[in-house]
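Long-time lurker, finally posting.

We've been working with N-acetylgalactosamine 6-sulfatase (GALNS) (Lentisphaera araneosa HTCC2155) and I want a structural starting point before designing mutants. I don't trust myself to interpret raw outputs, so I'm hoping someone here can both generate the structure tokens and explain anything notable. Sequence follows.
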Amino acid sequence: MKYIALVLIALIQFMAAENKKPNIIIFLTDDQGWGDLSINGNKDISTPNIDSLAHDGALFENFYVQPVCSPTRAELLTGRYAFRSGVRSTSEGGERFNLDEQTIADVFKKAGYATGAFGKWHSGMQYPYHPNGRGFDEFYGFCSGHWGNYYSPMLEHNGKIVKGQGFCVDDFTSKAMDFIEENKEKPFLVYLPYNTPHSPMQVPDRFWEKYQDKTLTMKNTYNKKWGHGEDFVKAALAMCENIDWNVGRVLNKLDELQIADNTIVLYFSDNGPNSPRWNGEMKGKKGSVDEGGVRSPLHLRWPQKVAQGQVIKEVTGAIDLLPTLSSMAGIEFQSKKKLDGLDFSSLLTGKEKNWNDQRTMLAYWRGKMTLRSQHHRLDSQGRLYDMRNDRAQENDLRKELSHLKTQLMSELKIYDREDKQLMSQKDGRPFVICHKDFEWTQIPARDGRASEGITRSNKFPNCSFFTNWKKLSDSISFDAKVQHAGEYEVEIYYTCLKGSEGSEFRISFGDSSIDGKITKAHDPPLFGMKEDRSKRGESYVKDFKALKLGTVVLKEGQQKIEMRALKIPGDQVMDFRLMMLRKVK
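Top reply, 14 upvotes:
Generated this for you. Predicted structure of N-acetylgalactosamine 6-sulfatase (GALNS):
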């Protein structure tokens, strides 16, 4: 009887383990091309941990994203083409997808999952566009499109400003591993959107030293030059090896916790490479709607259910991940809007294949659109290419296959009308601040406008600051909507030249205002040059100082926030980086 009881207990435990919902880990890299992996034939790089996900699970040969960051992120999160959810650009509010969209985190959280995101969000900063408002219990990272410093930078944890610990990708990974350990007894969804190999090209010494004097052998066939320079390419590859090391850390943690078998791990990138480096035979890079700008690696491992060594040739994309992962986890949900994505789980599990080989995948950016069918690509000029034999898009088949061109053009025109309709409308969405369900509101320089005399530190606004504030007539303003009336503590992040202390200023919030005075000079140098492996195009950064101004009572509704100087005793008022509002009552 004792033996039978033990067998029954073991059987019950086995069945419970079999029925437990799988954990999900999503790695998303930033500006890593399909060719930046050793498994795809790049002999200059070694990525054994990322490659192992394909060897131990499935490799997708024809997986597609969008040409730039925020549209791809929105499509992963919503299962819908990003232009349909309001994504217009990559900064200044245009990166936000609409609040009536349901996210993958919403779906999994409702199903009882612990949800955490660690890294670069790039889908909105102010709550409820913030990750904590889009279904993630935990967020650690930054919400802008890029960051200016990768070593112990200013980050946020659930809205509160904190200081990072070491190289940011290592830091994001460590925080994710802590979250995994804390939630190992329940199912979890972990989203790791890394911010590398996006510039600035900063990477720890031990990864850079491998490449610093290395002779690179792989070059892109359509562009023999290095574009940004050879050091940029070397740094990108070094950053990819750092990513691979961090993927290995997570996989080891899963083994250590004995939860690897029932954890779905997937890995992909948000767009093509950010320089014309080796990327197979494909035409295009980041920002391009051609094959090289939108083809991404996708590796998926689930030891308990997905057989090793599969190669999936069907056309799939980021829009498919919400319906697929929810299906694999056994989660039924009611979509608020029609999804563009399809459930591709039947391609993986060995069950009867349920897939539409006629489906197409749209790529679009800045008025250009292309359409990818199972075997062909219709480009933005109406040319047609056989993608099985011509990834470089050199042999135009539109005359030989005129019927197919006509069919695809007809489909593309439907998307084109929808996109043009959106872009012809003014983006009337204000920056939402002071939400009743969230303690913190960030109002960065990125989201502001300045009068003529004040300048931005860089043409790329995402991690910039305002400077050259020299006149009483100058101002910095924000269009905002206060969601919840109440009392809020106001804090700014500034630098101030010696001799300019004593500057006084006023911040108006519609009918309310608060005055401030800078009593201490704080003039740190710009930095980042010593850490950069290649010259950057983005703004360098400073160590900005926090200054608490007191509290202000705000009314609900849309209003203009305006910063004006009252007194300028020196050369300029300040350099302004960020305003923080904290709900008091």
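Before you design anything, note these points.
The chain has three domains: 2-354, 365-424, 431-583.
The mean pLDDT is 93.
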